[in-house]
């Protein structure tokens, strides 16, 4: 009995030593796990985020902004802009936005200098109001011709589809001849400073007629027919209306008649009239007004 009692404690201590060794093995495994996690996470996150953000933002913003701005700034001007008189005595005033001839006003939709034509909306027209027109032009040496190849089109596309034959100036405009236009060498023929017989002053230039506090801005004028149509830009009695001024000469003496002063439209102002053969009563039943330079 004494012999077995002495061996039991030695067996228990040996077993305890095995348990302690097993716990140290587990701690080593935990250390390996920590090392793998830290390394993978830091490397992936830093590399992907920095590269994508910097490259996309800088390239897209700089390229788009520079290209669009430069391209839009460069524009061409209408090559036939100017004032002309055609072979029938009519005056044509053409600028970047409009073509005016007599009482007709056409507002450009677009033009093509290379193809020598433009498309316009019939803003004011006695026969084809609110339709579309196409104007073609051609040069024969230094001489300019035009053909209104469409004048009553329902749409821009219909006007665009019209055509004229610039190789046949005699019959190439819908079976008719093209119209010759000569550049105007003179501006408005009554430009100057005047005093009328009532003591009022009149200052007339290429674009306006000023009398007292009234300011009239010209829509167009016709030196052959001796009249102009103007917008009442500043007027105490009829602001934002339209006027027509006719003038006549009696020898060296200049007279004028404001035959329209409160018209609702350019067309209405154009439609008024006066009688140059009767300077005493030919201005709406009243006398024409004499102006002295």
Can you characterise this structure?
- With 293 residues, the protein is α+β, with helices and mostly antiparallel strands.
- It is 28% helix and 37% strand.
- It contains three helices and 16 strands.
- Strands 1-2-3-4-5-6-7-8 form an eight-stranded antiparallel β-barrel.
- Strand 14 and strand 15 form a beta hairpin.
- The chain is elongated and about 55 Å long.
- Residues 1-74 have low confidence and may be disordered.
Indicate the mean pLDDT.
80
- Number of helical stretches of at least 4 residues: 3
Q: What class would the helix/strand composition place it in?
A: alpha+beta
How do the helices and strands follow one another from N- to C-terminus?
HEEEEEEEHEEEEEEEEHE
Indicate the multimeric state: single chain
Instruction: Find the count of extended strands (DSSP E, 2+ residues).
Output: 16
Placed side by side, the strands forming the largest sheet appear as 1-2-3-4-5-6-7-8
**Broad shape:** elongated
